[in-house]
UniProtKB/TrEMBL annotation:
Residues 25-165 form the Roc domain. Keywords: Nucleotide-binding, Repeat. NCBIfam families: small_GTP (TIGR00231). GO terms for molecular function: GTP binding; GTPase activity. InterPro entries: P-loop_NTPase, ROC, Small_GTP-bd, Small_GTPase. It comes from the Eukaryota. SMART domains: RAB, RAS, RHO. This is Roc domain-containing protein. Residues 7-25 have a biased composition (Polar residues). Residues 1-25 are annotated as: Disordered. The keyword Nucleotide-binding applies. It comes from Linum tenue. Gene3D superfamilies: P-loop containing nucleotide triphosphate hydrolases (3.40.50.300).
Amino acid sequence: MLGTTLPDRSSGQLGVINSDSNGSTDAKSLRVKLVLLGDSGVGKSCIVLRFVRGQFDPTSKVTIGASFLSQTIALQDSTTVKFEIWDTAGQERYAALAPLYYRGAAVGVIVYDITSPESFNKAQYWVKELQKHGSPDIVLALVGNKADLHESREVTTQVSAALDS
């Protein structure tokens, strides 16, 4: 690899810079491990399927353990980013497996259902867990899902924003 240093590939965070036969490093290829965490039924799998396949399935089945998908996007500067996405199961019985999936993750997406204070409480747990045990430079995103049910909203944007402070 020439020129630019990125975090080690084996960490699972970011990947390689590809160079052409002239040794130019114009084209970059990054690999980013992304994990979704949250309570069961908050819509983690639906978010992933929308991102990867552009589809929404309201009858989505419960994830067992975790599922893996990937999505590659091209940026305007000739960089490609391959997201390696781990969609974890939200049931309590699978919580002990979560560290296997978030280890080495560059991005943690914590999802809660805006109509469920219980799912928001679990989201707070996952934020703290990733801050404590995740990669030191992990990027966290808190996602309030099911905005189509806004009339039944129980977790206000003010409450969720307070978690960031």
